Amino acid sequence: MATALAPAAFIPSSRDRATIVVAALALAALVLAPWGPGGGSALMRALSGATSQWPLIAAAAAVLLFACWGRDTATALVAALGLAWAFGAGFAAGPGAPAFGIGAALALGALTVCLARALARLGMFRGDVAVATIVVVIGALLIVFIFYPVTCSLVAAVEDAQGRFAPGLISARLLTSDIWGLGCFGGGTRCGVAINSALLAAIVGLLSTLL
């Protein structure tokens, strides 16, 4: 009589060396690399009085320790908290906050990878760290560079020059010819942004289908 095979179970190793290396890179970036253009590292800023940097440095150190100990749940949790703190502190500082530089990019990127790998080791994404890293990193990039700017633009559409809620401005701003203009079809110089985007999407879709 045939014996049914039990489904394969995902059993991660005691610790992930790649996560340890990436976590060490995050901590090194915070200690050595410039956090923003023309400034010192996150550690130097913290020592100079920028107390908002200390929680991020502590989070990176904790991620490294938890990764060395093989504590995947703690690694994922602390990495997520560190990322949330970094972006939250940046938003709270307002427009005058220093821009992110190479140090911030390396540290936050490394923490994102640590988060993804820890989630995979917890059984998500079927335990595939490559898939987890791709999905989490792309998701983070979409949030930072697409969803957040678009949301800010939509919010600004209902605010007046003083930043007060003004719903009466919605139609004037969202239905302007700069967005929906059809001048390029009638001998004009250009079409609106929405029309240009739709035309570009149609051309890319057509060429992709033909190829």
Uncertain runs with pLDDT below 50, 5 residues or more?
A: none
Q: Which structural category do the helix and sheet elements fall into?
A: mainly alpha
* Separation, N- and C-terminal Cα atoms: 52 Å
Sheet of most strands:
none
Compute the number of strand runs: 0
How are helices and strands ordered from N to C? HHHHHHHHH
Domain count: 2
Radius of gyration over all CA atoms, rounded: 23 Å
Question: Helix coverage percent of residues?
Answer: 55-70%
Helix count from the secondary structure assignment: 9
- Name the beta content range: under 5%
- Outline type: globular
Task: Give the overall pLDDT as a whole number.
Answer: 86
Summarize the structure in words.
This protein is mainly α and 211 residues long. It folds into two domains: 17-156; 176-210, no CATH class. 64% of the residues lie in helices and 0% in strands. It contains nine helices and no strands. It has helices spanning 17-32, 42-47, 53-69, 72-93, 102-121, 129-156, 170-174, 177-180, 193-210. α1 (17-32) runs antiparallel to α3 (53-69), α1 (17-32) packs antiparallel against α5 and α5 packs across α6 (129-156). The termini are far apart. The model has no long low-confidence stretch (mean pLDDT 86).
